[in-house]
Specification:
The complex is a heterodimer of chains A (about 325) and B (about 325). Chain A contains 10 helices and 12 strands. Chain A has about 325 residues and is an alpha/beta fold. In chain A, α3 packs across α4 and α5 runs parallel beside α6. By secondary structure, chain B is of the alpha/beta class. Chain B is built from 12 helices and 12 strands. Classes of the chains: A alpha/beta (about 325), B alpha/beta (about 325).
Chain lengths: ~325, ~325
């Protein structure tokens, strides 16, 4: 495997729960991300999937150091980010950018496209205001927007176009890694395809690495080289996108895959769907042992004892003691 | 006679920026026990169609310009408020996309569950609570006797949607309108909710209108699907026909842009351009500006929904002329 550009070693992000008015005693901990190890190679697309509350967005914010890490290290090109000073972090963020889910919320409604795209260029001292015009025009063309819209405000654009602006802003500093948190979830199907194509093209042409967070497995299968499946702050399965989604091994991944409705009436009506009982448990009080065991159709006594570590099985990593038995 | 028969429904919104033709000439029939899917992108008019039927369009700015919606012989668009109250909430029920905003956060769910019963049936509070309990059990809420006294915020998203469904079905309606009921939910929870709707649909022989933008959801659930674009129905067919032999270029394009149907690593098929601006009068086919098969007359002549084969209607004039 080529040299990883982004590496996570046993990363933990815990939030204290405080109660009381004056003393604010800590009464518990939310283990939003609990021991995640991952690596992303240059030019690779890593998909991160899981249901709401599984910690995938917290993980994204932790990678960017928008949230402090409780434990473990995040390495960008071999450099540990959680030891960086704020000044160093600013420089690091040139290489590490983010695209958020909702382009209605992530763009400042009072800034024109030009202002939004020129801001990172000027802040990081790449060019001054005059030169920025040319750079911004280039950026806009890169993401498929006409530069003549430079002086327009976000509300004058549709959802898909806004997401293009958000992508252009992330690209402005020519980063090496982009983290995209559900970038297409808020978009319509036909617009979704346009944004996915754009992201795939940018990865190909600019040699970007992309961490693509989504809950829609069919989207991830299309764009990602490798997929990591998260459940309650932990990775339960990690492997090549096709392997994991077409031949899932972890019971949770199997349920997730079987829950996707397929646009094919005959297949949809004949197949056996694994319907998981209940909701994901609360990360404040996770179940003992394997956190998935209360909902798992294959759980045994030994599943209640300890969380199984990721183990290699058929070319991918699975955190299940019964991997291969189904 | 069909349970619901909508004819030439037009709902316009008169705003300062002009008239938005949100629904522009929609007609369809729905039989008892049938499940109809209405598919379309945001702004296609799928929700406004159903809101009009339910009388939930704020007027002004909205106005129902023309059309009729006969439900079992009563025109829902023209009946007296009293008549409409006796149908809505009892014989027609609706569930919404976001269960957090459609439940009253200040009331215990017990109050909200029994409200339709107290209004529509002469029943005592005690008996109504019994029915509510049984209904909560039926939608799969464990420990219902305790949880019925909870407030909405004490439930998770999936649970709230179950409460909504229980509330909608407690009067055993003949028609359930579900407006994107699973869009805000995770896939595993979505699967649970879809199973639940299917089960009740069979048990009560209830007709269902299922509004969604997800063709995948429609394929397993609906008997018939109609595709909307720019306030009009562009194609309507049985689910199998619509998926295997779509005729209208928009339906075809919509299917092609689903990622899971395309081989990995290839460029995804996309529909160029954007949905139409409904505040401008569209003379011809609303899809013409984005359609790869459009010719000159497509954007000039109005379209009509014409039977292509029995039970399969579509609105593309080039298909109707046998050119495609």
């Amino acid at each position: 495997m080529p040299e990883p550009i982004l590496e996570l070693r046993d990363v933990k992000t815990h939030f204290p729960i405080r109660q009381g008015f004056f003393l604010k005693r800590q009464v518990g901990t939310v283990k939003a991300v609990d021991g995640v190890s991952l690596s992303v190679a240059r030019g690779e697309v890593l998909g991160l999937v899981g249901e709401s509350g599984c910690g995938k967005s917290t993980l994204a914010r932790t990678i960017l150091q928008l949230l402090p890490t409780t434990g473990g290290t995040v390495l960008l090109s071999g450099r540990p980010l959680n030891e960086c000073s704020p000044v160093e972090l600013k420089a690091v963020r040139r290489d590490l950018q983010m695209v958020f889910q909702d382009p209605y919320a992530s763009l400042n409604p009072r800034m024109t496209v030009f202002a939004a795209l020129a801001e990172p260029l000027i802040t990081h001292g790449i060019c001054d205001r005059e030169q920025a015009v040319g750079q911004v025009a280039q950026l806009m063309e890169r993401v498929g927007l006409a530069p003549r819209f430079m002086q327009k405000y976000p509300h004058e654009f549709s959802g898909g176009q806004r997401q293009r602006i958000a992508i252009a802003r992330a690209l402005a500093l020519r980063p090496q890694v982009i983290i995209a948190d559900e970038p297409v979830s808020a978009l319509d199907v036909s617009i979704q395809a346009q944004i996915l194509n754009l992201l795939a093209q940018l990865v190909r042409e600019m040699g970007l690495s992309l961490v693509f967070i989504a809950h829609d497995l069919s989207v991830v299968k299309h764009i990602a080289d490798r997929v990591a499946v998260m459940y309650l702050g932990k990775i339960v399965e990690l492997g090549s996108a096709l392997d994991v989604i077409e031949r899932p091994q972890h019971p949770y991944t199997r349920a997730l895959v079987s829950a996707i409705p397929t646009p094919n009436p005959d297949v949809e009506r004949s197949r056996q769907r694994i319907v998981l009982p209940g909701d994901p448990p609360s990360p404040i009080n996770p179940p003992r042992g394997c956190t998935f065991h209360p909902r798992c159709p294959y759980a045994q006594e030994r599943c209640k004892v300890s969380f199984p570590p990721l183990a290699t099985f058929q070319g991918r990593e699975v955190a299940c003691v019964r991997a291969g038995e189904f | 006679m069909p349970l619901l028969s909508v004819k030439d429904l037009r709902t316009y919104f008169h705003t300062r920026n002009g008239v938005y033709r949100a629904v522009d000439g929609v007609s369809f029939d729905l039989e008892r026990g049938e499940t109809l899917g209405i598919v379309g992108e945001s702004g296609s008019g799928k929700s406004v169609t159903c809101y009009s039927i339910m009388g939930l369009i704020p007027q002004p700015p909205g106005r129902i310009e023309s059309g009729s919606a006969l439900f079992d012989g009563v025109d829902l668009l023209r009946c007296t408020p009293k008549e409409s109250r006796s149908i809505r909430g009892q014989r027609i029920a609706m569930i919404f996309q976001d269960p957090m905003t459609s439940l009253n956060p200040y009331l215990r769910i017990s109050e909200q569950l029994i409200e339709p019963l107290l209004i529509h049936e002469s029943i005592t509070r005690k008996a109504a609570l019994q029915r509510a309990l049984a209904m909560l059990d039926a939608v799969g809420i464990n420990d219902a006797s305790k949880r019925i006294h909870y407030y909405p915020h004490e439930f998770s998203g999936g649970m709230r949607q179950r409460v909504m469904i229980a509330m909608a079905l407690i009067t055993h309606p003949e028609l359930l309108i579900a407006d994107e009921p699973t869009t805000a939910l995770d896939v595993t929870v979505q699967a649970q909710i879809l199973e639940l709707i299917k089960r009740f649909q069979r048990e009560f022989n209830m007709a269902v209108i299922f509004i969604t933008h997800d063709l995948g959801v429609v394929s397993g659930l609906c008997d018939r699907v109609q595709v909307m674009y720019g306030g009009q129905i562009v194609e309507s067919a049985s689910t199998r026909t619509l998926f295997y032999e779509p005729r209208h270029p928009y339906t075809k394009a919509l299917q092609q842009s689903i990622p899971s149907l395309q081989p990995k690593g290839t460029e995804l098929f996309t529909i160029p351009g954007m949905p139409p601006d409904l505040s401008k009068l569209i003379a011809g086919c609303p899809f013409a500006p984005r359609c790869s098969a459009a010719v000159g007359r497509c954007s000039e002549q109005p379209t009509t929904l014409v039977e292509y084969s029995p039970g399969h209607q579509q609105a593309c004039m080039r298909v109707q002329a046998g050119e495609l």
